[in-house]
Structures are given as structure tokens and as C-alpha cells.
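INTERNAL AUDIT FORM
Audit reference: QA-55
Scope: verify that the stored structure record matches its stored sequence.
Auditor: D.O.
Record contents follow.
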Amino acid sequence: MSATIIDGKRVAKEITDALKSEVDALKAKGVTPGLAVVLVGENPASKKYVASKEKTCETLGIKSIGCKVPDTITQAELLKIIDDLNNDPAVHGILVQLPLPKQLSEKEVMHRISSLKDVDGFGPDSLGRLVLDEPGFLPCTPHGCIKLIEAYGVDCAGKHAVVVGRSVIVGKPVSLLLLRKNATVTICHSKTANLKDVCLSGDIVVAAVGKAEMVKGDWIKPGATVIDVGINVSADGKLVGDVEFEAAKERAGFITPVPGGVGPMTIAMLMYNTVEAAKNMLK
């Protein structure tokens, strides 16, 4: 029996629809949430993603502040832009679109963004609060993964969750969020022995390794929940995830498609964090 397909577009719309009323309420108090997105260079994927964010901002009534700069920008120049945005009261959230050109330090940039405006959730304060189980901005993609699991009524408590990938962007934070939901978590990576067997033991599998269809269908435990974070282009030009979808959906209980699964949730949770940042500044 085929898996239930997790509809990320539907869940994301439910979240953004609810945010629209919150934005209207903030505007009634004289506050228009503002999101600044810094785009360095002309990376086609980054430009497309930023355009989607700007469109969603417009739909919700969030002010989108675009900061497009050439890829020849220096570290000092980029940090000056971030300082200016940190000090701008009309800006509630700051996002620097990654990846950055090689001459720029992503880590230094993430450290420079004010913790009050770190709506991407990648700064040291945000990640530290995640580890300490304290309130703070959650990284958007991992938070979106958890929201999808919740939306389909999957109870994580006592389940074995296998996370394939250990990046700071997805693997590590989603593992911590699964721990918050009382799952028992195994983090896998390129040095993990018997990866197929580990995946087969997972009641929940989150694939975030960045390799097209690396997680095969027969690696999935029957009835498991599969969250595919990967976005890859196959040899024939098709957009595919990190999971072999067609084979995996015949074994899984729930599975996200690519596209239309995790992707829409990332933007929805970015909007959620931006609204929260605006609300925080009223306190």
C-alpha cells in the first residue's frame, strides 16, 4: 500500500494564512513586520529562492527589504550592511542568503546578525538556545520538518528517528528538535557503517545529505515516516530529493515529495520567525 503523501504546500498555506491575521494585528498597532534579505551575487538558485520569499512577504503584508550586492563585495562591506540593518528599527528580521562567495566568511556573517533579528535561526545565540531548550528562533527548515510531522499526527515519543546528514543547517538542529519531541535519535553521516541497516531501523527518517536519491526505497522500514529535505537535479534534469521516492513510497507510511514537501515549509517558517521578531519588539 502506497504511503500518504505529506502535502507541504497545504501545511505551509495553513501557517501563512494564520500569520496574515497576526500581521494585520501588528499593523493596527503601528508596526509593519520587515524582513531584509541580503543576496550576494547572481546564483540562479538563490535568486529564485529570494524571489519566492519576496512574493510571500507581499502576500502577507510583510515589508520586504531587498539588499542585492555584487559577488565582489568584501567582508568588511558586507558586515557594514548587516550593522546598518541591525540598527534599522524598520527591520525586524535579517537573512543572508547562503551560500556566499568563497572570499566571504559565512560564520562571521552569522555571528554579526543581531540575535533579536536572526530569523534564519543560524546564529550562535539561536542555536545555543535550541541546545539549552530555551525560547528562541528555530532554524526554518528543521522547524518546518517538525511541523509537517505534527500536521499528519505522527507521534515522535518513543520512536527511533534516523537523521541522515549532520549539517548545522538541517541535520544537527532537526535532531535536537526530534529530541524535544521525545524521539530517540541517531545521526548518520559519511562515516556511518551499515547505513542501510540504520535507516531500516528508523520509525522516522529525515534525509538531509544533499545527494540525489542516496536513500534507497528498500532502506525504509515499512510504515515509517520519511521527510526528504534534499533538492537535487538528476542526470535527466528532473528535480529529485535525497530519497528514492517512487520505491520508498511503496514502503513508507508517510512521505514528503520533492518538490512540494519541505520546501514550502522553509519559507512559511521564515515568515513565522519574522512575525515573532516584530511581536518581540513590542514587548
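Auditor finding: record pair retrieved intact. The two ends are 51 Å apart (CA to CA).
Action required: none
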